[in-house]
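Hi team,

As requested, here is the filled-out complex form for the S-adenosylmethionine run. I kept the field names the same as last time so the parser does not choke. Let me know if anything looks off before we queue the next batch.

— J.
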Amino acid sequence: MKDLLGQALLDYQNGNHTEDIITSTNISDEDTLPIPYLFREYNDMPKLEQEALKLAKGKVLDVGCGAGGHSLYLQNKGYNVKAIDISEGAISVCKNRGLKQAKVSSILDETEHFDTILLLMNGTGIFQKLKYVTQYLSHLKTLLNPNGQILIDSSDIQYMYEDEDGGLWIDTNSNYYGELDYYLSYKGKNETPLTWLYLDFNTLKTACLTVGLHCESIKEGDHFDYLAKLTISE
Ligand SMILES: C[S@@+](CC[C@H](N)C(=O)[O-])C[C@H]1O[C@@H](n2cnc3c(N)ncnc32)[C@H](O)[C@@H]1O
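And here is what came back:
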């Protein structure tokens, strides 16, 4: 990983924001990811993220924290928050912004226990592929204190496979339709391609059942997106 995302976040923080990140996937054309969006304040966050922050309780882990906006909001409210990200640049930015506990780490290496685990801005993306979902969920479950919760958002992207007549062109012999090859470039450099998973609610719920997690839909967004709360099944 070249950590182009981290470089873009650092550039923005240092006043060198001259261009945004360009993204594309195997099923969609180029799009822009505006770097200021990654520094959004509470009032500019989607309703699903605001709802997740309202539901936060106890000791919090923010997984894939990026520039740390969610963590900073909760830290300012007095919560004990730990933020992790695999991007060194992102964690530098979080520390510069005043986050007390920010660490370069992958979720699978985390061992502490928490009352709330946040995975936001398509949190299921971190699972990469449908076949890894139960592995990630099982691990996340081991990090929960009794009565703890995982708050995660994602989208059902079936609509991206609709043609103009409303027909679907999903190849049923291929992988799960929410598994996308994701390409990112910044200032003329290409990041190592990654796989990013969008998971529909029912598939997430089924995966949760197999690892002993209860999965509840908390809120639906405007565009096939949702916020789910996962708790340990009784
Ligand atoms: C879409 S960004 C979301 C950033 C932030 N949560 C937000 O809402 O602005 C996803 C983040 O997850 C991080 N990430 C990807 N895989 C990860 C992993 N296995 N463990 C921790 N962080 C990871 C990426 O480096 C990136 O910063």
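Two things worth flagging: The longest strand covers residues 144-155. The helical segments are 4-13, 47-55, 69-76, 88-96, 133-142, 201-210.

Thanks,
J.
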